[in-house]
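Before relying on records like the one below, remember that each one covers exactly one chain. Contacts with other chains, cofactors or solvent are not represented anywhere in the record.
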Amino acid sequence: MIYTAKFIKAVKYSHNQWEKFTRILEDGATPLDNSAAERAIRDFAVLRHSMPSGFGSVEGAKSLLCSHHFMKLQSPWN
């Protein structure tokens, strides 16, 4: 069998990720994906993408994030 470059790359990647893989197997509470984190920031990411020029500054982004977080805490649907 002739190993292709893609196959060799995949084997090297899996070998390099072995410690992370075994950590997930040892701790059953570790999630296999980051869906919960992505859902938590989804509204903020959609808002960021809908703004024509982004936030304009880092301080503007921080301010918007704080106000969004406050509104989320006040929502009865959480």
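Helices lie at 5-16, 18-26, 35-50, 58-74.
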